[in-house]
Amino acid sequence: MLIPAFSIGRTQKLLYELEDLFHDHGYGARGHAGARPRTAWQGLQVVLDSPLAVDFTAGYRRLRRYWDEEARERVSAGRDPLAFEQLVTVERHVDHLRMVDYLARRHQPAVVIAASGMCAGGRVVNYLKAMLGDPRHDILFVGYQAAGTPGRDIQHYGPRGGCVVLDGARYDIRAQIHTIGGYSAHADQQDLVDFVIGIPTPPGEIRLVHGDAVAKATLAARLRVAVGDVKVVVPG
User: 2-179 belongs to which CATH class?
Assistant: First the structure.
């Protein structure tokens, strides 16, 4: 299972939830197996292959005193949501290449989290090149795939048995493609409107520079109604 994910925030959320799955199935904190081990889960590794994600995950762990109550309860119970037994981190590029080759050739089950989240660059691209053509593998998208990105093409054409262009070469998609919504950390349209309304001193101009054209146009129309004295610009 290959999960393209952003290194900051999204990756840590995934690790947090994966640790909970391992705990529910009998495995959890490093060095501690639960009372009901299951072979399938025991043999499953989670590979975090991103130097930036590894660095920021370590930062999250250093700041655990600021975690919420649920996370602190896990720590008190001897669990570590961001450094559980099955987690393997990859930092050096040479080790990354070896991991790609190893997982592509072997039948060992694994969950790989690698950036970038929209498959537009980074280490996830090497995994995709090695694995997209093999139906044994699964690609799981947990974030929005913007138009024009390889992630959107894989998401759109993959279920049809199509292809995607990566680094100028065409790759057939035979892996299984899945999407889970609800992981976005971005504010939605109403949140953005409320944010602007709540600014004590209204800005003189708002420029919408990020997002699909239709979404930006819709947000601009709502903002013009909500804050009529503010100039709203959607650059072409």
Answer: alpha beta
